[in-house]
Fold this sequence. Notes:
Elements: H1 8-39, H2 43-71, E1 75-79, E2 89-94, H3 101-109, E3 116-118, E4 120-121, H4 130-136, E5 141-142, H5 147-152, H6 159-171, E6 176-181, H7 189-195, H8 208-217, E7 223-230, H9 241-245, E8 251-260, H10 274-298
Helix pairs in contact: 1-2, 1-4, 2-3, 6-8
Amino acid sequence: MSISSLSAALRSAIAIGLISLNTIVHVLPLMAVALAKAVLRFARLRKHFDHWLVAIAENWIGVNSWMFDHLTSTRIEIEGLPEPQPNGHLLVICNHQSWVDIPLLQKVFNHRLPFLRFFIKSQLIWVPLLGQAWWAMDFPFMKRYTKEQLKRRPELVGRDIEATRKACEKYRHIPTSMMNFVEGTRFTPAKRSQQQSPHEHLLKPRSGGIAFVLEAMADSIDRIVDVTVAYPGWDARRPSLVDLCANRIREIRISIRTMEVPAWVRGLDYQGNPDDRRRFQDWVNQLWSEKDQRLDRLLDPLLDRAPG
């Protein structure tokens, strides 16, 4: 019996089992190297530890991507794929529609760009194995505070900014692609309506996150990689990881453009200068308007695209 003839339920069970096994196999040595790095605080050794950590994580992603290719028939069409650039520092921004976005971006950019790191909600550190893996890889854990919490405890103001600065400081010394889902949450039509977003396919962008990264790493960010992900045929809801494992996602379309960091952004003072903040927000809003137009094209069922 071939994989393609399996039922969706059985295919999902096999995929989830293999992904779990792959995670266990890679997280255990990842944790061992991370603990050694924490104990042996010698600069020369830390470079080797960082290299080993990335090598283990990239192999983990590589095996997951191999399963992506062999357990599903999902067609991925890509335009604008950048040339391999394994070193340096990049800012990767993307719209966010599904949990599928993360393994998809990891698959597309693994061994092509510096290792992807992204900001994670602090509660997710308790996710078995994955939380520990993210900790081992120095992913920044962010604790978000509500307006009510900040009102009761003013001393919390700016803590997320300080966490961003500390995380970015670590990445100055190792090749890194900082990943940011600018909308801050996954898109749904209900959220779009609640926000009264001016975009048809996107939520309103939150400029603060990428502003903090660019402020903290302005002199070391080489380029911005702007990614637009579309799931044609998923208008009523967005596909889940279970849909991916069950082979229900027929096609994914990705548009990528690589941009230079504008010169004026390198001197950005987002928090302290209202004019800088307003100019930066206008710039991000323009990027998002252009992204919405790209999504119009990517989601067109009549789109005739050559395989990318």
